[in-house]
Amino acid sequence: MLKVIEKEKVESLLERMDDAGCVFNFVVLLAEDGVKVDESIHRQALVRLHEKLMKESWDGHNDLIKNPEYLGLADPAISWELEKAVATILDWKEIHNLVLTEDYVRGSLALYGSFREPPYGTKFKGGEPEAQELFHEWRQALGLEEQDGVVVINWVKGFKKKWLDNDDAIPGREPWSDYFDYGLEWWGVWCLTIWNPKRRILSALIASTTD
Question: What's the rounded Cα separation, in Å, for the pair 177 and 85?
């Protein structure tokens, strides 16, 4: 129903983003012909994202325990209570703000702002032009385009930050994964799924970090 595509391209993008200090992770999937992409399919994309996060955690864990000093290290775990996640479909203004690299409205949906300014900042040898070029390349890989039919769902709307007051916090809206614990200290969290029907691409991105 959903299959991972452009694996080498995604790995290359992630490597360059990591090298620059970006904190996002993501997966890009292709929906088979005939599959109706509704909320349940978006949730399946989040399951695939969790699988990717866990694989990377285990790979890092297994590398560490090759050193005898880390033999007693606890197994990695990322809770993922997806049944508690609330889907919020973005409107066209919010999608427009996601794609901007200049003059975007700062806040929880300023994607370029979070791409460019995690807690420890980013470093691009080519400065702002290189940063914008990589962002646009990432956005295209995700299928995040301003065109008819593109659907973007926010899965972390309303989470309350620990050390800062955020006006968009929704009473009773609780995080559904401990992956978000660090970001909710103050910086913020991201989790979006993006459906591009023209390319039949369904992607999922996530970010959570602190200083």
Answer: 9
Residue 186: count of CB within 10 angstroms of its CB: 14
Cβ 192 vs Cβ 204: under 8 Å: yes
Q: What predicted TM-score, i.e. pTM, was given to this entire model?
A: 0.94
Neighbours of 41 (CB within 10 A): 17
Contacts of residue 168, defined as CB under 8 A and 6 or more positions apart, other chains included, come to 107, 108, 157, 158
Which of the two residues, 73 and 144, has the higher pLDDT score? 144
Task: For residue 196, list its beta bridge partners.
Answer: 201
Q: Report how far residue 24's alpha carbon sits from residue 115's, in angstroms, rounded to the nearest whole number.
A: 7
Cα 44 off chain centre by? 15
pLDDT in tens, 163-180: 988 888 999 999 999 999
As beta bridge partners, residue 153 has 89, 193
Strand-pair partners of 194: 152, 203
Q: How is residue 151 written in tokens?
A: 């659907």
Higher pLDDT, 177 or 108: 177
Please state, in angstroms and rounded to a whole number, the distance separating the CA atoms of residues 182 and 162: 10
Reading the block at residue 136, the tokens are 């646009």
